[in-house]
Amino acid sequence: MNQFALNLNDMMQFSQLMIRLQDVVRAIHVPGRDVKENDVEHSYHLAMMGWYLNISGHLGYGSDKLIRYALIHDLAEAYAGDVSALDEKARIGKTQREDVALKRIAEEFPLAEAIIDTVRGYETLIDDEAKFIYALDKLMPMVMVYLADGRTWREDNQGFKVMHECQGPKIAISEPVSQLYDQLRILLLSRPQLFGSQITT
């Protein structure tokens, strides 16, 4: 039998990291369920969506890269936690907290160098695949809230204008995702009942 350089204790520790990531609850309600999605669900959903859009839209990106970026894009939140994109106060210091968290992960898992390098590549938007997943990550919450009939937006008294000003420029870095957003904007603006009492245009 072949002997591989695997360690059960190391595997269990990495599982604990994944459990911590699963414990990070996001602001977005899961459509059809009275729960909010967690980071693991979100990352898996983003990976599958990126892969699907790449093959269904004949985008020509490397699917393996898309999947890896999507799976690790929120890894630092296992220690840093998540904050809403629209919560300006909570986002103060977010980059610094996530950098500290990522360094901690690198120290705890020195054999995960390739994973950490992938996170860094994503953070610096090193290639078109990283830009695509970055933009898609901003679009997906809107799709999720739409599928949940606007519940998160209504509960947070959120209007379209603020959301668009925050996320629109980030989505614009990827042309394919930007085209999807243009379609979604038309749909959202035709259904103002999805939003809170704030101005929606």
Describe, in plain words, how this protein is organized in 3D.
The protein has 201 residues and is mainly alpha-helical. Helices cover 62% and strands 4% of the residues. It has ten helices and two strands; from the N terminus they run H-E-E-H-H-H-H-H-H-H-H-H. Strands 1-2 form a two-stranded antiparallel ribbon.
Shape field: globular
What's the Cα radius of gyration?
18 Å
Low-confidence regions: none
Strand line-up of the largest beta sheet: 1-2
Keywords:
2 strands; single chain; globular; 201 residues; mainly alpha
What's this model, at a glance?
The protein is built from 10 helices and 2 strands. The protein has helices spanning 8-22, 39-56, 63-72, 77-80, 94-108, 113-123, 128-147, 151-155, 160-171, 175-189; strands spanning 25-29, 36-38.
Layout of secondary structure:
Blueprint: H1 8-22, E1 25-29, E2 36-38, H2 39-56, H3 63-72, H4 77-80, H5 94-108, H6 113-123, H7 128-147, H8 151-155, H9 160-171, H10 175-189
Antiparallel strand pairs: 1-2
